[in-house]
Q: What sequence folds into this?
């Protein structure tokens, strides 16, 4: 069977992936917040980052490995990638409703 290479683009920190589909860490930590902006998402002023992957998180390396952080973005056509900015709660909630 021919398996195509996984295409990935650089992550620009738009945050869309964490809004569109919560990872298992986000689900486990925040079972009551399954839609909209993940409570672990933090806007730095220039991009979103995951608090679980940043100091002082004691599981940062584990989370990064499990989620393949640093290996690029596979959601290159998402509408937020071209417009990286802090999102309002309503915008994030609307992403979930489109499914
Ligand atoms: S959707 Fe892609 S560019 Fe946006 S935060 Fe996720 S990996 Fe990064
Ligand atoms: S912000 Fe972190 S915990 Fe939340 S969905 Fe994204 S990677 Fe998962």
A:
């Amino acid at each position: 069977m021919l398996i195509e290479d996984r295409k990935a683009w650089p992550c620009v920190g738009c945050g869309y992936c964490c809004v569109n589909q919560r990872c298992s860490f986000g689900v486990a930590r925040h079972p009551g917040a399954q839609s909209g902006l993940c409570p672990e998402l933090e806007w730095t002023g220039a991009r979103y980052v995951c608090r679980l992957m940043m100091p002082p998180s004691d599981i940062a390396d584990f989370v990064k490995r499990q989620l393949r952080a640093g290996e690029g973005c596979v959601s290159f056509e998402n509408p937020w990638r071209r417009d990286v900015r802090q999102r309002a709660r309503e915008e994030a909630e609307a992403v979930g409703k489109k499914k």
